[in-house]
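Question (not urgent): is this output format expected?
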Amino acid sequence: MLVVAIPKGRAIEPMLRDARAFALCMVSPNDKQVKRLFGQDNEKEDDPFLSLKTTEAATGMPILKQSLAWFDCKLEGHLSPDADCRLYLGHVIDACVCDAKGISAIALQHIVAPIHETRTSSRSRSVPATTPYQK
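Got this back:
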């Protein structure tokens, strides 16, 4: 699952809810074209994807060809906390690390899923979630 915070009132919100899916693309921080087309202050009527090369994800969402990594998600719901943003919950159905050389080691750790540990007894013994606990 991914949680995405989007400021309330942004033009993307109704499109996201109607599509019931979204994709997140990680691009190089030096990509000036993406910054210009998708910058924080950009709320143009023009579709920024028209000037970029894309491919289609399983949900039909566009994936930027220059992505270093991406996540394709089905929208599971949204929350509207008492804050200036809404939280959109996405179930990841597909993902890709396309260019690990372009991603910093710190960022890559957040993309690659760690082995989750769960508490199994009062003795606080931890085991990987993928390994069934046996007494």
